Protein 1
Amino acid sequence: CSLQAGLAVLLKAERLFHSSYHSQAVHIRPICKVSHWFAQLPCDGFTVAACLFLVQDASCLAMSWELRQTLTVVFDFFSSGQGKKDWSLFKMFSRTLTDTCPLASQSKVYVDISPKNKEKELLEVSPPPTSLHEAIVQGDKKTYAVYDLLSPSLFNTSRSLNVQLKWKRPQDSSEMPIPTLHAQRYVGGYGLQTGEICTLIYNTHPYRAFPVILLETVPWYLRLYVHTLTIITKGKENKPS
């Protein structure tokens, strides 16, 4: 369907590249399969997973490939001067969803509406979602509003879908909880002798440990010496392998 229908309609370059952060990736991995396919279907959406539907083969006598394309975009309206945390698809992408791609096996939009505290829910989404989905993410229970573009009732009342999220009352930014996993990075010192990059990774969970993959984007003006890498955890140095 390219940019004619489905979630890919929202992928407007001038909006994506002017966001606070964007990242595109293609993941390819070999997987075991039997000698025949179930299907090879076109894929649609921001995060496209398992485009090749295969049957696993325990003996791994045959090998095939799985392709997964992802696009991650971060919009920050509050710090950009608009002063509101409300958002909508049209506000972010200057477009709305008008139809689903008929070749897609599934096409869904998930909105995180998990309560941030014990008070009454502060978030309101419109139009009403087709269903709700609950999952455990990093030890916390999450609730998602699900919009299934393949549902016939979704486009019955309107020719377009513009998912909107509004706060029922103004919320102070200080009330927002700190993520379980978060990080910060800064450049210290100066020159090649004392200059350094420091990355701090925090885990605020009271008892659970998480595996972390750290990908560093090094500024062009810094020259790194790998033998100077140090890793300190709880005040003790861990020698990297």
Protein 2
Amino acid sequence: GQHKIKFIPEMVGPILEMTLIPETELRKATIPIFFDMMQCEFHSTRSFQRFENEIITKLDHEVEGGRGDEQYKVLFDKILLEHCRKHKYLAKSGETFVKLVVRLMERLLDYRTIMHDENKENRMSCTVNVL
């Protein structure tokens, strides 16, 4: 109800952790909570910048800690885009946000993989991409 806004951004991290559990049905059921958070903050402030900043920060930390995979990236993209495109006011900004997070996830997952590569040039190139 009206108290949802009080949980943003504090609940972004715990919900992100839950959505990163490698269980497809759990992911499908919980990723839409992010859209609800975006929508809630947007209706309150006309932006969802606090949510956006928090999810990017927490995602970086979680992927670095070994969580997240290609399947998560695909589901995140598909589910949030579907929700955003149906919303009158969040269609454009929501799609921009989702694409930004998906690109970040791609780079973070690549970075995590390449950190075990012996080739320092590959690691440096991947580091530059993340930055």
